[in-house]
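Observation: inputs received (chain + glutamic acid).
Thought: call the complex predictor directly.
Action: predict_structure
Action Input:
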Amino acid sequence: MGATGVNNQKIDKEQESLNLLSSTQVVIHEALNKLGFSDEMYELLKEPLRMLTVRMPVKMDDGSVKIFTGYRAQHNDAVGPTKGGVRFHPEVNEHEVKALAMWMSLKCGIVDLPYGGGKGGIICDPRTMSMGELERLSRAYVRAISQIVGPTKDIPAPDVYTNSQIMAWMLDEYSMLREYDSPGFITGKPLVLGGSQGREKATAQGVTICIREAAKKKGINVEGASVVVQGFGNAGSFLAKFMHDAGAKVVGISDAYGALYDPEGLDIDYLLDRRDSFGTVTTLFDNTITNQELLEKECDILVPAAITNQITIDNAHNIKASIVVEAANGPTTLEATKILTERGVLLVPDVLASSGGVTVSYFEWVQNNQGYYWTEEEVNEKLELVLVQAFNNVYQISQTRNIDMRLAAYMAGARKMAEAVKFRGWL
Ligand code: GLU
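Observation:
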């Protein structure tokens, strides 16, 4: 792709992120209205309280120095410290980071954690960087944002293309700056550095619980149900495995390069074995279809677990699934949400379905604070309790108010934050 192509792609992505931010604002506004809060509350919550942009010089392996741009947004800290992941991606931009920070506030509200939402991002392509370059970039980011983060201020975590190794470098840099070990500064760490059992699989566990609860409401038996999972990253790959192990037939999966579909069911264990660390597997096969084709395939349960803007006004009418569970952040547009709901599809929104990750991050932080660690069974038991309650709370709001699950989830998510703002006397 030439320079103009790359620039156009960047502008398209920025526009898409602006749309994401404004549709988030539309739903927050509606949710606050329904909850009886004033327009002033909306004015306060429609953007993050703080947004830091940093530029970081990093030595590359060939001896050159490259300047990277990064962001950290803190949406609202009325409830407690802000919390949320850091993504490394070539198309990260400030509108996206803002929207993601707002979603983190909603997620924390929905599962009732003592946090507000935060989010970070660095414009980079980790797939083309060496481990040394990634380490230097991760450390540079922590130095750049160190003033505004900390275990009782703002707690980062993994997100798209970041993992426990990157969290370990970030923790080490932070501990060196502060001159004491501070495991509660970041979550999603390796177990030996104070990570939690079950954290890696937590997002997929949470999605699995939501699928099970949604299936009950729809009278569908997960055992034998056909499932399509778009995306084979952290959430998608573990989810495909959990669904397979629960007796569902995983008929479709995909990665950034294409999709595989087989109505008889795919060999998930084999695909997991062949998957690389960025979740790529379809490049090994010739009989692939596109991601867009996959979404419209016959199935009972569709799980978009990849990127934003996948189910839109263009394909919402052609989705065959009766349950759509958003494991990714922002895969369905508002117009598409409306179409799916009118068609009787039960849509479990991202802020609910993907909240398992931050829930176990919270458990990790609690364990770090008390210095006492739980077994994987204990973690999963607690996660189960939290998510079943959160799902049923949102479902009940949607039933009693006769509204879609997204608006219901925003209502559940915004209430605690708005009440905390009131109690603090900010409004
Ligand atoms: N990045 C994840 C999310 O979007 C996890 C955040 C966290 O664990 O704090 O929910």
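Thought: report the result.
Final Answer: The pocket of glutamic acid is lined by residues 83-85, 107, 157, 159, 187-188, 329, 354, 357-358, 361 (CB under 6 Å). The two ends are 50 Å apart (CA to CA).
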